[in-house]
Amino acid sequence: MRIIKIGGSIQKDPNDYHLIAEKIKKFTDDKVIVVTSALKNVTNELLQVTNEPEKAVSKVSEIIDRHYDMLSKVSNGKVFEEGFQLLSKVTDELAKVAWAIGTLGENNPRLRDYVLSFGERMAVIILGEALRSYGIDARPITEPPLITDSNYGEANVLLPETKERLHALLESVKSKVVIVPGFIGTTPEGKYTTIGRGGSDYSATVIAKALNVKEVRLVTEVPGIMTGDPRKFKGAKTIPRLSLEEAVELSQLGAKRLHPKTFDPVFDTDIEIYVEGLYDEGFTVVKGSCTPSDVLKGIAVVEGLTLIDVESTRMVGRIGSAAAVMTEAQKANVNIIAMSQPASETSIQLVVSSSDAKKLQERLASLKEFVKDISAIDVDAVSIVGCGLQRPEIASKVISSAAAYNPISVSRGMRRVSLTFIAERGQAVELAEELHEVVLKWIN
Ligand code: ASP
Ligand code: MG
């Protein structure tokens, strides 16, 4: 059996479904569970529906129309009619919800997840009927296979219950290809939940774990995970293989946006994850832990950051001074992207998104008890990822290449398979290019 996840960004026009069908056909020698995300942009638009109740009805009718339009373009005859019936059930429900939102103006996490669930449920039907139109023995199942707790927006999967539901599903559905929604789940009481934005990749790996399936294919718009963003780096290439540690670091650093939890279910298993393109040949296989042949794999750059430097001799040796600084960030609802403090304890550096910098600086200025000076500079974060960084000879080479660009700080990621340099904005680009050249030497 295989799990194949079809991303939302590759479900935007009828030709995409043609390519998706061709791809899935290649794997129908065995049973396939297809996990789908909502059509391109639909999740964002459904979020708007909950955020702007006055527009809920018109926005929803636009979204619904788009799905019927797509269904009519990817299927016809009896398949279209059956799809139409399935879709009507779901869209009738969505229209009622939109009306209620518009009338009551309500918005809460549980309602939001309920509204978002329609994106994936509608997508299952479109994809299912499209595959059937191409002669594939496929069956769309709109109800999510995942059972979760009720932590709406970031729900946690309950694995034993999910396992049971999946086995029951496979018992009752004999079609070669079963299509299920990613990203959404239900609580044991049957309330819809979501597992975090971009969560359909994670749905796919969790299903693989629950069913003990050894192969997961994540089909996206790019042919695998690349050594660097090809728009920024000359000669960027698809990385043939990543260890799980490397994949986690690269996915968190955003080279190819994958939900960071995607790889969690796969640690300590022999599941292989293929990240592959729909439009171009090429893939990355993610499997197992670091091996000696994993050296340096990729570069990620996070731009538009500000380093806030808080200085004072009054922080030295005082329990709670760092906590006070961090708490201000938390209260200001500011995410800390990187941080550092020297052993002298005379300063604390926080790296945050530049758009958050001003409000955090203002708050920190109020910490008169600890803080004397606050300064800020524009920076970028440049990260290099590879298991080779665990080896002193490789790490020291990378650090000495970076030294020429005068990085302000260096930190290490999970299991030491990444190094992040914070550098002044002007120098970060050159630093990243230099490190990318180093990476290319190690990629075959
Ligand atoms: N449709 C969901 C989102 O946009 C899940 C996913 O795409 O993976 O976040
Ligand atoms: Mg998506």
Briefly say what this structure is.
The protein is α/β, with parallel strands linked by helices and 444 residues long. 41% of the residues lie in helices and 21% in strands.
How would you characterize the overall build of this protein?
By secondary structure, the chain is of the alpha/beta class. It has two domains: about 1-220, 3-Layer(aba) Sandwich (Carbamate kinase), CATH 3.40.1160.10; about 300-440, VC0802-like (2-Layer Sandwich), CATH 3.30.2130. It is built from twelve helices and 17 strands. It has helices at about 15-25, 40-50, 55-75, 75-105, 110-135, 160-170, 200-210, 245-250, 320-330, 355-365, 390-405, 425-440; strands at about 1-5, 30-35, 140, 145, 175-180, 185, 190-195, 215-220, 240, 270-275, 285, 300-310, 335-340, 345-355, 375-385, 410, 420-425. It has an eight-stranded mixed beta sheet with strand order 3-5-2-1-8-10-11-9, with helices on both faces. It has a six-stranded antiparallel beta sheet with strand order 13-14-12-15-17-16. It has a three-stranded mixed beta sheet with strand order 4-6-7. α3 (about 55-75) packs parallel to α5 and α4 runs antiparallel to α5. The longest helix has 28 residues, at about 75-105. It is globular and about 75 Å long. The model has no long low-confidence stretch (mean pLDDT about 95). Aspartic acid (ASP) binds near residues 38, 182, 183 and 197. Magnesium ion binds near residues 7, 8, 37 and 198.
